[in-house]
Amino acid sequence: MLKKLFAPLAILVVLSLIFTACAPAATPTPTQESGPKKLKVFGAFATPIEEPWDGVIHQALLKAKDAGKIEYNYTENIGYSGDMERVLREVAEQQKPDLIMGDAFGNEEAVRRVAADFPQIAFAFGSGFGPTEPNVAVFDNWIHEPAYLLGMLAGGLTKSNKIGVVGGYPVPEVNRIVNAFIQGAKFVNPDAQVMVTFINSWFDPAQAKEAALAQIDGGADVLFAERFGVIEAAAEKGLWTFGNMSDQNSLAPDLVVSSAVWNMDPTVEYLIKQVEAGTFTAQDLKDFSMMGKGGASLAPFHGTESKLPADLVAKVNARMIEIKKGVFRVDIDEAAPQAVN
User: Fold this and answer.
1) Which of 46, 177, 198, 244 is least surrounded by CB atoms within 10 angstroms?
2) 3-class secondary structure for the chain?
3) Is the pLDDT of residue 88 over 80?
4) Domains plus CATH for the chain?
5) What b/e sequence results for 68-85 when a residue is b if at least 16 CB atoms lie within 10 Å of its CB, and e otherwise?
6) CB-based contacts of 174: which residues, under 8 Å, 6+ apart?
């Protein structure tokens, strides 16, 4: 009798085991971990990201996002009227990112006040000041080295011995780029005069263009566009010109010889690793924006190289190798350049 009762039960147990083994795996619920958590990064930019300085940071963060390394959101054109502190507080409280990046400078106090209230969040901002413990790291565009190389090119290309430079503000971060450019021009052409105009704005393309046109009227036949808008003036007049921050050849392919390129990828990669590992510290990230670590470079000549003197190109390439090897140092001069040197 017991055998008759247990036989059907045994069959049911076996069938149950078979069905269980063949059943599809359960779909993870939203509360279940389906993979490593991505770092949450927020970008806070005072200017439109069209402005090259902020654009370089933004592009590096987009690249990390597209590679699947981070989640990334941003706000641009925040300005300098106190809105930066409001935006940062809202983001810190509501979005709770792991890392906030952007440009400080005119918003230095706002950034540091918010960072002090949210020590669990890493802050990494472009800044003219030093890091602040425990959670504010700083960086800057140390592209004076490629700017020197652009100066060499400008000094060798000018026919009038007059070169124009239009900059934003005469602050150390801009001054060292302009002064390095002048050093390079003087090295190749001691007779070169460099006219420098500051528009006292970080982003005013119309004003920058107007300043460049005034320099052209004054005899300048080569222009360095430290600010956005200058290349448009050079294109209208058919003059050699140089870009800044990013490769700006596309703005005037036949006339933009090269650009002093700032590459934020090394800085962003380092920060991601630091925050993910829980080892983020307040530090100056300067080295990651230098040519030695790939944070600065001279943009390709693109289609202009065949039109350049071969000996000038060779001289520039030789000096570039010396800079990368550390056997030539471009002086860091952050004093305001004279109007004409």
Assistant:
1) 198
2) CHHHHHHHHHHHHHHHHHHHHHCCCCCCCCCCCCCCCCEEEEEECCCCCCCHHHHHHHHHHHHHHHCCCEEEEEECCCCCCCHHHHHHHHHHHHCCCCEEEEECHHHHHHHHHHHHHCCCCEEEEECCCCCECCCEEEECCCCHHHHHHHHHHHHHHCCCCEEEEEECCCCHHHHHHHHHHHHHHHHHCCCCEEEEEECCCCCCHHHHHHHHHHHHHCCCCEEEECCCCHHHHHHHHCCEEEEEECCCHHHCCCCEEEEEEECCHHHHHHHHHHHHHCCCCCCECHHHHCHHHCCEEECCCHHHHHHCCHHHHHHHHHHHHHHHHCCCCCCCCCCCCCCEC
3) yes
4) 39-139 (3.40.50.2300), 144-262+294-325 (3.40.50.2300)
5) ebbbbebbbebeeeebbb
6) 167, 168, 198, 226
221-251 tens-digit pLDDT? 999 999 999 999 999 999 999 999 999 999 9
Give pLDDT, residue 81. Answer: 84
* CA angle, 274 then 263 then 140, to 5°: 70
- The pTM of the whole model exceeds 0.85: no
